Amino acid sequence: MLRVGGAAVAVAAGVTGFADRSLAAALVSADLVVYGATAGGLVAAIQARRMGRTAIVLEPSTHLGGLTTGGLGQTDTGNGAAIKGIAGEFYRRIHAKYAGTPVTPTSPARFTFEPHVARAVFDEMLASAGVPVYLGVRLASVTRSGNRLLEVVGDNGQTYRGAMFIDASYEGDLMARAGVSFTVGREANATYGETINGVQLRSGHQFNFPVSPYVVAGSPGSGLLPGISAAALAPAGSADDLIQAYNYRMCLTQAASRLPFPKPAGFDPVHYELAARYIQAGWTGPFFTTHGVGNGKTDSNNNGAFSTDFIGANYAYPTASYAARESIAADHRTYQQGFMWFLANDPRVPAAIRSATASWGLAADEFTATGGWPPQLYVREARRMVSAHVMTERNCRGQEPVPDPVGLASYTMDSHNCQRVVVGGVVKNEGDVQIGVPGPYGVSFRSIVPTEAQCANLLVPVCLAASHIAYGSIRMEPVFMILGQSAATAAVLAISAASPVQRVPYATLRSRLVADGQLVEWPPPAGPGEVIVDSKGAGVTRAGTWVTSTATPGYWGADYEHDGNTAKGVNRLRFRPTLPSSGTYTVYLRWTADPNRASNVPIDIVHGGGLTTRTVDQRVTGGQWVALGSYSFAAGADGSLLIRTENTNGYVIADAARWVLTP
């Protein structure tokens, strides 16, 4: 038994903190009711419990953890240094789980992981916080009083009552039931003064060879192949109700124990005719990604013009019934399993491609209840709230910083293709956009709450208010965790003040978020006795040629620099701090790691006692501050840290240096 809000609640045997809906009491009450056991929803409940309030999580499916435990083990981080708070703790716990070490506030973060490891970490965090999760709870109705939600009722009649509610689902069902405004599809560029929203015919994940879209190649009168729109391509930047494609993030392996790709019962070769023609036209791949996540397993995703994305098959999903969504998800599963089987077995596919594909299979020890196939459809976008502030491309680009940030996002503005169209007698994919942002940016508090008139006690950290293209940057699992924590913090503060959540003073909210380790500005302010020098900041001098980049996440500030792996010994970069007082300072250096980096970078530290040379390996320990020792420094700008490049065996990175005064 687990006590929630003063009432004893039965939980499923052997799984502390998790309840089958059939075992729940007729009425369950908690301070905070979270709908959606996504990563963001789980973090929200954990935060509420850590703030001394009761919280429960309702999940319509039987899967816990959303995409984070559902195959997305190659985390879309953007700048990993901007991921703090409970989200940062989760990724530090992932590292500790693999390393077999205790997690600490200074543990490194690990952003790649196997699905079962992510699930184990969430289970531990939920158990520690005392958060019950009720699986298989589908919304039947909600009860309101004025502009407040009172309770939600499951489809089996069980009632869940709370003072505050959070909709952390990918679909926004509770938000919609509560009468909150939302939109689905792509806005026109003109709506919010954007440049890359709406219809976008671009080069990403595009057909590189001409492929006929017709049933009989080259014959328009024969009709179009499945999945190709008969509508004329609309003008660039125009609005429509289309959404970016969904797929499943597969966990694959080449181990002998792998499960071969199954041929689904609904396999229809016509769905892969475009792929066959594309191959015949000369395309040899890749057809899917194989990003390693540990122990020989992958997070495998869509890649290329014809891949695992089931383009055009998800338009009804955002507002569909639970049953209709199950059918759409089943169609996606059939399509994607059929595609993998096609690549591995169809005689129209060259033997080399068949062999390469068949060398992979489903990991037998992941998703064992579903035969190795992930249970969570990748719902990249569904409903999006319309509220007092809608996040836009201008916010993402840093052109219009928000005054009330409750977390940071930093990933590329990323939309997968939305449709297949006919252009000039050949098939084209439309909708793919991949445009980087200059650095981490704030997400507005107003974008995760409805207007007070619509609902005064609901927060929406996943289906938040954002334009289609801005959502493409924000919609990453770490950001959902960040916003989940911030939403729960606001909810608890509103409960304590007996006020609508929209009236929580931003200064009060910000203060609590910062106290709990959340980042709300970038770069983060230096702490007491701390001086940080960024590669683009004052106090940096350089010799030779240094190239600016944002290709590898984990950098400090807006970017980092590298030596281009050339001009060894000529390229040098010096960080010179202005220290506020004399004393002993620990010196840190930061870089982004990659196998192409140098493992033997010489670092000269000039301090009060002279010069000390250290060597760092930039192939590892990226995206964190690496201590290089403690030294005596005088106040002022006499000390420095010099990155040299002579005789280095790869790219040399210059990102930022840090001095921290010893108390």
Please characterize this protein's 3D structure.
The protein has about 675 residues and is of the alpha+beta class. It contains twelve helices and 36 strands. Helix 7 (about 320-345) crosses helix 8. The chain is globular and about 80 Å long. The model is unreliable at about 1-15 (pLDDT under 50). InterPro entries: CBD-like_Golvesin-Xly, FAD/NAD-bd_sf, HdrA-like. GO terms for molecular function: 4 iron, 4 sulfur cluster binding; metal ion binding; oxidoreductase activity. Pfam families: FAD_oxidored, Golvesin_C.
Describe the structure using short key phrases.
single chain; 663 residues; alpha+beta; FAD/NAD(P)-binding domain; Jelly Rolls; 3 domains; 8-stranded mixed beta sheet; 5-stranded antiparallel beta sheet; 12 helices; 36 strands; 20% helix; disordered N terminus; oxidoreductase; 4 iron, 4 sulfur cluster binding; metal-binding; HdrA-like
